[in-house]
Write a structure and sequence with these properties.
Elements (H helix, E strand, L loop, with lengths): L1 H5 L5 H17 L1 H19 L1 H11 L15 H20 L9 H16 L4 H24 L3 H29 L12 H21 L4 H17 L3 H17 L4 H21 L1 H13 L1 H21 L10 H8 L15 H9 L1 H28 L2 H20 L9 H14 L20
Helix pairs in contact: 2-3, 3-5, 4-5, 4-8, 5-7, 6-7, 6-17, 7-19, 8-9, 8-10, 9-10, 9-11, 9-18, 10-12, 11-18, 12-13, 14-15, 14-16, 16-17, 17-18, 17-19, 18-19
């Protein structure tokens, strides 16, 4: 019945039901008619190409801090996520599509359940609703990427859009930092410089993959790499730099990336830093001096925040203190803090999950990361067996992003950012865990005529 309504002659009936009230509104209230036409076009787009909405959402994620309207709670990114879910649901019903349910959904679902339990058993349920909603949206995003990204071409297109959007955000942040001079560290598209550094640093391996796999666009991807590297350095985030260092060590130790490629990337970042000091020496020296003066205090603050998280987890060993409860209770657990902080966060994704959501949430999250890494390793092995150069490069790039994300998350609270969830979903698609290769169907020969 659904197929008849949406295809062939059956489309006449819904078209008439839409056209008649629209024509009436055009005669009586033209403005409302335009709104109605826009809504109809949006619904048609949602039914026809939900993948386009996914690309729009991925492009918006690096600009989340600048898209906090109409409010931070109901932002453009959240509205796009809701529209994407509705688009996928409508299309799934209309086309009777099969759900993709890979094994990786098990730890992710357990993680969501653990977060929900910690919210229900927390002392302040209302305070944790916003963070719980953010967790739910990222889990839904992970699920939708698996459903809508069907093959490697779709995955490459998603990576390309994400890389270009992150590069544009990096250029805007550099403009605010170097030209306007209104911020102490590069940020803006994402408000916190550490969060912004985490995102742009994680994109660097993906841009490296695009540079190697698309020779006709190498100049474009080289410019993107330079801008992303410059933005990472301008954030003055040591956590992101540690992640990049871990990436270099992993690449050389595993021989996934040739030594010449690692040296080329390091030389590029070093050249960007030297050029920046040549042009903006007074500004950069002032920022580095102020950062250096509080460097030791920052180390002491991290240790105090981590110890507070461990003590908090010990007091609530089953479900944690509740989502977003750490900043509220930090004054009771964090002692000898050498800095006055505006907001107290753990600066460690794993300890924050443990303190706020309990051991089940942490184990589920670690299982999700382990499953992602295993899927990418399996994809890389298959690429070597089949001599698939592009698949090998893509798997290596996604693993490189995971190295940065996992290591940097030891010094930053980043479980509610894009890299973990996007790379986790792409790993499933690329590894073919839920995408069995299409089989060629040979038409049956006609039966011989009776003698």
């Amino acid at each position: 019945m659904t197929a008849w309504v949406l295809e062939g002659r059956g489309v006449v009936l819904p078209a008439a039901l839409v056209a008649l009230p629209t024509a009436y509104l055009a005669a009586v209230e033209p403005l409302w008619a335009l709104v109605g036409v826009g809504a109809i076009a949006l619904v048609a787009l949602m039914l026809a190409r939900a993948e386009l909405l996914l690309l729009v959402l991925v492009a918006a994620l690096p600009w989340e801090g600048a898209l906090g309207f109409p409010s931070d709670t109901v932002s453009v990114v959240k509205l796009l996520g809701l529209l994407l879910f509705l688009a996928w649901a409508l299309r799934t019903v209309a086309r009777n599509e099969r759900l993709e349910l890979p094994p990786a959904l098990v730890p992710v679902s357990l993680f969501g359940v653990a977060v929900g339990l910690s919210l229900l058993l927390s002392t302040d349920v209302a305070a944790g609703m916003r963070k719980t909603l953010s967790y739910a949206l990222f889990i839904a995003f992970f699920f939708l990427v698996i459903q809508l990204v069907r093959n490697r071409d779709d995955a490459r297109r998603l990576v390309r859009v994400f890389a270009l959007s992150a590069t544009a955000a990096a250029a805007y942040a550099l403009y605010l930092f170097l030209v306007v001079g209104e911020i102490d560290r590069a940020a803006g598209p994402i408000e916190d410089p550490n969060d912004f550094a985490y995102l742009v640093a994680s994109v660097l391996p993906l841009v490296g993959y695009l540079w190697s796999s698309e020779p006709s666009r190498r100049l474009l991807w080289a410019v993107c790499f330079v801008l992303l590297g410059a933005a990472t350095l301008a954030t003055l985030s040591r956590g992101a730099l540690v992640g990049l260092g871990a990436l270099a060590v992993w690449a050389v130790a595993t021989r996934r990336v040739p030594l010449s490629g690692v040296l080329l990337g390091a030389a590029t970042l070093l050249s960007v830093g030297l050029l920046a000091f040549t042009i903006w020496a007074p500004l950069l020296e002032d920022r580095l001096d102020s950062k250096g003066r509080i460097a030791s205090a920052n180390v002491g603050a991290r240790e105090a925040l981590w110890k507070g998280a461990i003590e908090m987890a010990a007091d609530r060993p089953l479900t944690g203190v509740g989502p977003d409860a750490y900043p509220l209770l930090a004054s009771q657990y964090v002692r000898d803090l050498p800095l006055v902080l505006k907001s107290r966060v753990v600066h460690n994704s794993y300890l924050e999950i443990l303190a706020e959501n309990g051991p089940l949430a942490l184990l589920s999250f670690l299982a999700f990361l382990a499953g992602t890494w295993r899927a990418l390793a399996r994809s890389h092995l298959r690429a070597e067996q089949e001599d698939d150069i592009d698949l090998r490069r893509l798997s290596t790039a996604l693993q490189g992003t995971m190295v940065i994300a996992i290591v940097s998350a030891t010094f930053l609270s980043e479980q509610l950012t894009t890299p973990f969830w996007l790379i986790g979903a792409l790993a499933i698609v690329v590894a073919g865990v839920s995408r069995a290769p299409a089989r060629l169907t040979v038409p049956a020969r006609p039966a011989p005529l009776p003698a």
